[in-house]
Write a structure and sequence with these properties.
The protein has 653 residues and is an alpha+beta fold. The chain contains 16 helices and 21 strands. Strands 1, 2, 3, 4 and 5 form a five-stranded antiparallel sheet that branches. A five-stranded antiparallel sheet has the order 11-10-14-13-12. A hairpin with a 4-residue loop joins strand 10 and strand 11.
């Protein structure tokens, strides 16, 4: 099934930048609008502050001007004659009541000395008292010289600040005296500043040094955001009226609106950023999936193993190119096909159908199943099939995935290897018999010599005519026994070296050991080696090829005999043991030679590795191959009594 990987679209940088810039500009525009509204509101407050401050300043000037006019009128009335006007004290009191900012009023003569007034008069002073304040004296002298009303500099008395207005009066061109009105900054502001102004602003009088001489309201203005300064002239002398707006209350709805707009903008940006990350992850996932698909497709196309996917009904839903090459059918011819399949061999129809139902039922063996298929051209081939569940992305079982391996060449190679192994084993048996030829000839020659001797003796006694019947019967029995002995040796040799197909039948391992020992015991005696048998009784039979087992035992016993050539003759003993174990039957061949080094034991069963100068290094390798072909295992271990023990286990059959 062919498919092409989709090409992922490449997003331009402006694709993500434009929405973010637009939202950012929108938020900035809203913030700018709110800032402009705030600035406009501040300007309105500032304009209101300036207007209100100018109004208060004009009101103070008007009050001072009016007070000055009243004082001038009072002075003219007082200094009109030689004596004070009758009833002048009530007029002074009335002046003080109408001008709460005036602390007291003094009447001075031409020299600046206080004149006595009527009893009970406000601001009454002792006659002849001099001016007590230098700023007032300076103002008095200046007014007398200029003939104009003069304001004095500020002065402190008892923690409170005052300033004075000196109004001179002349009679007949001569300075007759002056009226001095002393103002309290605190009282003046308290009287002249209206409540609505004090509710919004704090009004203070500040001198040139920054000292606050008086204030309307002692409340703290907080962070002074708005302030307006107006020269307080009169009285002058560097005095300034400072109007400070109280800190405006926070506009909660406006701030909440601004905060909501900023939060919404931030939320939109965050949402856009999250969407961008999601899109990037998705694009990355799609790109990774595309790469993974391309990689998997390339990998599947390069496989020599055929892949075949089927649904739960047995319908083919996917095949890879290797499977198509293996069977000769195209994917179009196989996909969506139900059994029987066109690549099933007709002669194997029943076996293939049974394996098909078994795999769909989930009973396919883990080691795979071998089937014979046919190609499109009719050629047969052997296939090894492994089945595995096909699971989708949601974890549901949707079918079966089969891996199909063409094992035709492998089976041919295995058959060839088996034949070569049999030839090698047969050759090894012939080599063993060749090496034992002299010993076997001696074993056969002994019964033949005995037969010849018994025959010659019988003939001589028969010719002499004195051979009793009993002696003749005994001699003939011995002849038959020696003939049977020679026959057994020849049979064993014949059975051992004959070429035949392996035949696995139930075998008594004790009989196999006896026959193998019978072949080698002559060679053992010749080399001074004793063979000790320890055969367990009641062993279960093993299903094996009897000749191959004799070959294994004979090879192991010959190796044990060779290993004891340097052992003292009294210690040369070869022990063959059998025992029942959990896995089957265990056979052990123990010698008392020099033993095997660890590094040598690791390579002992490798082909062409030998510790003998004249050895070919195939004996133990053949022995292990024979044991493993019988589904057994072989190993070597050290003999506690010295030497080595070769053990192998065969499963009971």
């Amino acid at each position: 099934m062919e498919a092409t990987s989709p090409r992922l679209p490449k997003l331009q940088p402006w694709y993500w930048a434009a929405p973010r810039i637009a939202i950012g500009l929108f938020v900035l525009a809203v913030i700018a609008l709110l800032w402009l509204l705030h600035r406009q509101e501040l300007e309105e407050h500032r304009a209101g502050l300036i207007g209100d401050a100018l109004w208060v300043e004009q009101n103070l000037q008007f009050n001072l001007t009016r007070s000055q006019e009243h004082l001038q009128q009072l002075g003219q009335d007082y200094f009109a004659g030689n004596r004070p006007v009758a009833g002048f004290a009530p007029r002074i009191r009335s002046f003080l009541l109408n001008n709460p900012g005036v602390a007291h009023v003094q009447i001075l003569d031409g020299d600046g000395l206080a004149l006595r007034k009527d009893p009970g008069m406000v601001g009454e002073a002792i006659v002849g008292e001099d001016l007590g304040s230098e700023p007032v004296r300076q103002a008095f002298r200046l007014s007398r010289s200029t003939g104009l009303p003069t304001f004095s500099a500020s002065q402190e008395n008892g923690g409170e600040w005052f300033f004075s207005l000196v109004v001179p009066h002349f009679r007949d061109g001569r300075h007759a005296g002056s009226l001095v009105a002393t103002y309290s900054f605190r009282k003046l502001l308290a009287d002249q500043v209206p409540w609505w102004f004090a509710q919004k602003y704090r009004l203070s009088v500040v001198d040139g040094n920054g000292t606050i001489l008086g204030s309307k309201s002692n409340l703290d203005a907080g962070e002074e955001t708005l302030r307006h300064r107006i020269p307080f002239d009169p009285p002058g002398h560097g005095l300034v009226l400072v109007a400070t707006a109280y800190q405006a209350e926070t506009s909660l709805p406006r701030n909440l609106l601004a905060l909501a707009i900023v939060a919404l903008g931030a939320g939109v940006l965050a949402s856009l950023w999250a969407q961008r990350r999601h899109m990037q992850k998705r694009l990355f996932a799609e790109q990774a999936l595309s790469k993974e698909y391309a990689f998997r497709k390339a990998m599947e196309d390069s496989l020599f193993t055929g892949l075949r996917a089927r649904d739960l009904d047995g319908r083919i839903i996917y095949v890879n190119p290797a499977f198509c090459r293996m069977t000769g059918f195209d994917a179009v011819e196989l996909v969506n096909r139900l059994p029987p399949m066109p690549y099933w061999a007709p002669e194997e129809q029943e076996a293939t159908q049974a394996a098909h139902h078994k795999s769909l039922a989930g009973l396919a063996p883990n080691e795979g199943v071998e089937l014979r298929f046919q190609r499109k051209n009719g050629e047969r081939f052997d296939a090894l099939i492994y089945e595995a569940p096909l699971i989708d992305a949601e974890g549901r079982h949707t079918g079966w995935m089969g891996s199909v391996v063409d094992i035709t060449e492998r089976k041919r190679a295995e058959e060839l290897a088996r034949q070569q192994q049999e030839k090698l084993q047969f050759t090894a048996r012939l080599v063993t018999m060749g090496e034992m030829a002299s010993t076997l000839a001696h074993e056969i020659n002994q019964p033949l010599s005995a037969i010849s001797s018994y025959t010659t003796g019988c003939i001589n006694r028969l010719e002499a005519g004195d051979l009793p019947r009993e002696e003749l019967h005994e001699a003939l029995g011995k002849l038959a026994s020696q003939a049977q002995r020679a026959g057994r040796v020849i049979r064993r040799i014949y059975d051992f070296v004959r070429r035949s197909e392996p035949q696995r039948t139930p075998c008594d391992i004790s009989v196999v050991v006896d026959d193998a020992v019978g072949l080698i015991e002559g060679d053992a005696r010749k080399r001074g080696v004793r063979i000790a048998l320890s055969l367990a009784e009641g062993l279960p039979p093993v299903r094996a090829d009897r000749v191959m087992l004799e070959q294994v035992l004979l090879n192991l016993m010959r190796n044990g005999i060779d290993a004891m050539q340097a052992t003292p003759p009294s210690e040369r003993q070869l022990t063959v043991r059998t025992a029942a174990v959990e896995e089957g039957v265990e056979i052990g061949v123990a010698d008392r030679g020099a033993g095997i080094a660890a590094e040598t034991a690791a390579r002992l069963f490798e082909p062409f590795f030998s510790t003998k100068p004249e050895g070919m290094g195939m004996g133990l390798n053949i022995c292990r191959s024979i044991v493993e072909s019988h589904k057994g295992r072989m190993w070597v271990e050290a003999n506690p009594e010295g030497g080595s023990i070769f053990r192998f286990i065969l499963p009971s059959g």
